[in-house]
Each structure stands twice: as C-alpha cells, then as structure tokens.
Design a protein that fits this description.
The protein is an alpha+beta fold and 482 residues long. It has a single domain, classed as Cytochrome P450 (Cytochrome p450), CATH 1.10.630.10. It is built from 17 helices and 12 strands. Helix 5 packs parallel to helix 10, helix 8 runs antiparallel to helix 12 and helix 10 packs across helix 11. The N terminus is likely disordered. This is Cytochrome P450. Its cofactor is heme. Belongs to the cytochrome P450 family.
Amino acid sequence: MDSSLVLALIAVALPVLLHLLTRVKKPRRPAAGKLPPGSLGLPVIGQSLDLLRAMRANTAERWIQDRIHRYGPVSKLSLFGAPTVLLTGPAANKFIFFSSALALQQPRSVQRILGDKSILELMGADHKRIRGALAEFLKPDMLKLYVGKIDGEVRRHLDECWAGRRSVTVMPLMKRLTFDIISLLLFGLQRSPLQDELAGDFAQVMDGIWAVPVNLPFTAFSRSLRASARARRLIAGILRETRAKLERGEASRSSDLIACLLSLTDDSGARLLSEDEIVDNSMVALVAGHDTSSILMTFMVRHLANDPDTLAAMVQEHEEIAKNKGDGEALDWEDLAKLKYTWRVALETLRVVPPIFGNFRRAIQDIEFDGYLIPKGWQVFWAASVTHMDAGIFHEPAKFDPSRFENQSAAAAPPCSFVAFGGGPRFCVGMEFARIETLVTMHYLVRRFRWKLCSKNDTFARDPMPSPLHGLPIELEQKASP
C-alpha cells in the first residue's frame, strides 16, 4: 500500500478510535424480528476504516457492490460506531426519503459546527417552517432577480482569475467563485476585506465539518469550531445591520437572504424565525450554496476536456444565446430556460460523480423493510451510485450520455433512482439556484476559453466529497473575441 495512503488512514483512524472508545454504546437489543444478513465486524471499528479507505482510493462504489453481491440489497454492518443497515435500490431510496420512522442523521461534527437550529437538525413542524422560509428566498419570482447579480460575479471572477493566464487550478477557483456568489446573495457582501475574512473562516469550517468531533487544539475539528464561531459573529453583525436597514427603508425583502428571513412573519405578525435560527441556517446555506455547485462545475470542466462532441454542442447552444444579446448585456431568466442541453450535461455529470456519495438516516422506532427488521436507534445508509450506475436503470451506465435527461416529464429514470438532489421532504431546496449558477458560469467559460488537462492521471478521491487530482490543473487558452 502507498505510504501516503497509510499515513492518511492512520490520521483518520486514530481520532476515530479515540472518539468512539469514549462514546460507543452496546447496541440496543432489538425487538423480535429478522435482522438483515451481514456482520457488525470488530467492536467499535466495524467496517468504518474499510469504507474510508475505499473512498480515499475512489473504490467506494465497488466496495458497496461487493457487499450487495455477498449479502443482497439489504445488509447490516457497523459504521462510525453505530450498527447500520445498508439499503439499496429505487424502492429502498423511496423508503428512506419518505418514511416518517426515519430521521436525518448528520455526523455530530456537522451539528456542532453549523448549529442545532438548522434545517439539517430539525424535524416535523420546525423543519417544515424553516424549509418554507428558505424556499421563499429561492422561489422563481425571487430567483429571477438574482440572475443579473450572478452574471456580474461570474464575469468579474473570470476577468480577475482566468483571463490572461496560461494555466489555472479549477477546484479552488470554482470554490471561491461560488462562495462569492452565495455570500453576495445571502448577505449582500461585495468583494471586500470582510468577504475575504468570511471566506477564510469558511475554508477552515469546511476542513473540519466531516471530521471526528474531538475538540483538541491540533485537530481540524477544533480549528473548524473556532472558525465557525468567528463566522457566526460576523453573520450576527450583518443581521443587525440588515434589520436597521429594513427599518430605515434602505433594504427590502428581496435584497438578500438575511433581509428575506427577517421580513417573514406568521399570521399574528410575529417574526417567523429567531435570530439563532437565521444564523444557523445562513451557515447551512453558505455550505450548501457553494460546496456542491463548485464540485459539479469542476467535474464538468474535467469531463469536457476529453469530450469534444459534448463541448461543441454546448458551445453552439451558448453562441445561439449570445447572438441575441447586446455587448455586455447580462443573461436573464429567459436565456437560461433555453440552455437545456447544458443542464442535461450537468445532470449527467451529477449521475456519474454525485457530490454526495451517500447519507444516513436514524430509525426512531423499530421498522421493517423487505422482510428485515431495522431496530430503533440503528443507522440506515444509502449510496447514490447504486442506482446511478445500475445498468437496469441507466443503459450503459459508464457511458457519459446527456440524452438520458431529455425527457424530463418521464424523469429519465424510475422514481428515486436519480438521487443527486436527494428526495422526499428533504429534496434539495436549492436545486434551481444551483442550476442558475451552473448555467451562467458555463455560458462564459465555454465561450471565452479552451482548455486541456495538465495531468494524464485523470483520477479523483473522496474525502468525503469528490476532489480531482491536485485540484484539476488545466492549460488555458483564451478565445478570440466573438
């Protein structure tokens, strides 16, 4: 085994073991019923290190398939100190997304860093209330107002960070672009020292958000907690300034997310959200609004470098839009509605490389699926690749084929098969925002530049999000002005 991989695994394993040894509990004795086949593995460790190693080596999909071949579509194992049931297939996904007996299970590190009043932690009426508030900011009438702002941010970013350079590293640039966009729309922040400070804090937040929650000075989790505290103070200050602007008539509900959430009231006229809820959900929106979108666009750039036919079709679609625009005129909502092929390319990229490998739920009562008992308190784990790469659902799944998503009315696959945006009551509320961000960015990218990959070793790892080798360095060539 490569020595760097060994060191990486040790770095992950030691804090995992230290943490779990202090917290692991004997599994609750289940009620009468047939448990799924499989093994919980070694005490404390279970199969956690095997899965982490597979994710780092980008063989996690094979690891999941090996379990399916050995035990079938339902099996038991132990992940991160908890007994777990792996459920696979469209019917299993539907069960996971829609069952009221399953609660979202986030790693403890996420709750500690992002707060316990976020949409990720709440259930029932509170979850519905918070989701409705965020959806108010992301409804089509509001999104139409943001296209011009996003357009301006994308053009500024490309002028400052791409134009005139012979090479760039794509992933860190995409992360900064999407962070600048989301911080503008959430808080009204223009490029400034304050925005740079928030970006720096959030880089540290992301480094520790999936870490083992051991709060020791040398750990990524500890650094992330401190960065989160700084970011929360900054957001609370923005909240107070925005409230004052609203009271003076200098801001409106459509100004940004903070203004929108502060303006929402219930039937009695009381504020719908508390300050703590606004801060916590602003933190979540910052993470969700820039991390997965930057991964999607990075992997689109990666794929297009070696797929000239798909790239040519995209360029043609974007040039058709540009022909009807004046010099310097921003894209609008109607333009984006015409970029159907580009969005199909994005969806196919998400199918092949889903940013979220899988996720957990927790059984809040004894529950049965496919004849097997899932005891109360056990985790339920699902993985996107199981259906995304199923030849019975997507013909020739290893082939990149955007035409799979031509017939949107038929959803291009059985329900709960394409799960890049999740499903059920927790279906990604920001999908339309991600679509706008992606389409605007790709419009200017494919029209202004050509590129090729610097590395012949076109690989990526998951930690836990997919990350291409060395951040995807590319050689860049600027096209002549049209």
